[in-house]
């Protein structure tokens, strides 16, 4: 619909449609008052109605014309036909009322649609037009489009950040509400050493800043890591634009229904025009009845009932930092009773603490630290980053790296070469795959760590185990409360799918209250698990961070990405993105989806109900055009207003 508006001239800006509708109403009222109150000539009254028609029919005619050219007879066409018919039989006031209410309904619908985009597009405006580029000791103000990767910009206190990047100087509290919806500012500090190559996705979020967010009281220097067009805010805006094109299942069903229904109405009405040939009445009377049926039977309310609810729901979610990509995700989410979770970074903080690093087989401990550090700092895995950072803070190693050729072995660990000999760091499976023997002592040690709920990794080098690394990841603070809440609202199965050891998974699952935990899963096992859950439960939502769980997420009915403000893949592919890392948004979006679905059902019931009653009453000759118009268009507006209730949805 809005696509057609691009062809038209919006002289009063975006609200032109609403103003035209109001003007239509004003001239309708004028005509009506002139008619009732004064003895003025009929010409003046008709002129007033004609002007009213002009304003009311303007946008509708344009839409009808564009659709007709594509061979589509839709509601706009029906409305124009009914209004012209009404004018022909002299029922100007009714025709004008019809156009007024129809155009008002449309204006309201577009208002609802714009809200969805606006809540995020406003952020686009939030990002400043210029940035302060640091060149040696001078600052130069340049347009943000001219920023290049690896530029250094200076962000003044309390000003907007101009680019996605990493802080290299300064500490500040940053308001990220524009992107994550969180109202509380987040503390950010400079990255330790910024000599090595910087990977936006790999850097800890506490050093990353986003374009469009607002700096606190301190000056910052930011190393630019993304071009303006690739910034998180820009990508969000693009995604929001795509949202509108993804129709919900109900939307598709009603569209299909309309395709058959509208032609039937046209045929029925045409036949009714010739009723005077069969029964004893004038052509005028037949025409009057036909037009009334046309008004009564038009599925305007039905056409608007789902899209307005879907878009209001999406807009409401966006206000809270949740991006729902389309009506399908919104409708599906409301019917979910099974949710699968990835562990690391989803249910847990994803910042494991190094617990133990033990050497075996007389390997020098200092050398083991160096080996693990050199290998793990070449990997992007959350475990690797945690381990490398912990060692770096503990030991003072130089930058020289003895490791090379790092390769991830999905779900098992990594392989690399260290001083030209192959080295393996990962779980038990990785080690046994290499036929490296495991002694009783080592086995006992592994069990001890597992019992404590720690994730255990072994280091295999020169065909023996030279060390054991254990780390501990803590559950997110909000995890157990969120899971409790999910159970309360009727989610039956909450399942953890993790690549970690089964015992570690179960320890955490018990702690936070999941109904089930499955461990030792390779990424393909996670996919298999989702397939099985779908077969058993119909619809399954998968919550993950995109690391090692992307294929499983893709297969799930609704995929939900955590902390999408930082990860490219997750944001792009997930059906729902939680812009902040907040698990506690889950009950909120599920509640919102259910409410949206309820409102859609109410709307469909109202619109079809009104049509059924009106058509019957009209054919029985029990109503007039005026009443038909009022009830018919009234139901359209009721439906839109019902949908707009979603904009103030609160979880109770
Ligand atoms: N870079 C790495 N260094 C050491 N061990 C690793 C590395 N990557 C993976 N592993 C080992 O492989 C196991 C499985 O990893 P995977 O990425 O599949 O899952 P995970 O990170 O443990 O948890 P989740 O599946 O919940 O995200 C890890 O538990 C760890 O033992
Ligand atoms: Zn209508």
Automatic annotation (TrEMBL):
Can you cite an annotated GO cellular component? plasma membrane
Q: Which residues form a coiled coil?
A: none
The record, for PROSITE patterns, names:
ATPASE_E1_E2 (PS00154)
From the Swiss-Prot or TrEMBL record, state where the protein is found: Cell membrane; Membrane
Which controlled-vocabulary keywords does the entry list?
ATP-binding, Cell membrane, Membrane, Metal-binding, Nucleotide-binding, Translocase, Transmembrane, Transmembrane helix
Write down what this protein is called: P-type Zn(2+) transporter
What EC number(s) does the entry state?
Answer: 7.2.2.12
Tell me the protein family, please. Belongs to the cation transport ATPase (P-type) (TC 3.A.3) family. Type IB subfamily.
Q: Pfam family of this protein, just one?
A: Hydrolase
Q: What class of enzyme is it?
A: translocase
Predominant subcellular localization, coarse grouping = membrane
Tell me if Protein transport is a UniProt keyword of this record: no
Q: Does the keyword Transcription apply?
A: no
Indicate the segments forming the P-type ATPase A domain, all copies. Answer: 126-240
Source species: Bizionia echini
